[in-house]
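Revision sheet: structure tokens.
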Amino acid sequence: EAGERVIESLGDIAPDFARYLIEFPFGDIYSRPALDLKSREIAVVAALTALGNAAPQLKVHIHGALNVGCSREEVVEVIMQMAVYAGFPAALNGLFTAKEVFRERDGSQRC
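Predicted:
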């Protein structure tokens, strides 16, 4: 759903980029057999947290991690681990993003 919104928002300015954004990671990388989706989402949450400047993308992938079976505790632990490698500010931003995702999901479950 969030990925679809990104693609739609790029359609008028960079439709090819929107297509690449889906085809390469999901068509070529995510489909490789060595890692399951849960492992891939854990890796992506770690990488986006470490970048420290990708909160919208991190939010999408935290949702994705939860959707493929990661627990909230696993998501938080992965983000905390990044404090060692990417610094406390990056991990803190990641934790705030996770908190926002958890709040959204809790709100949608009450409806």
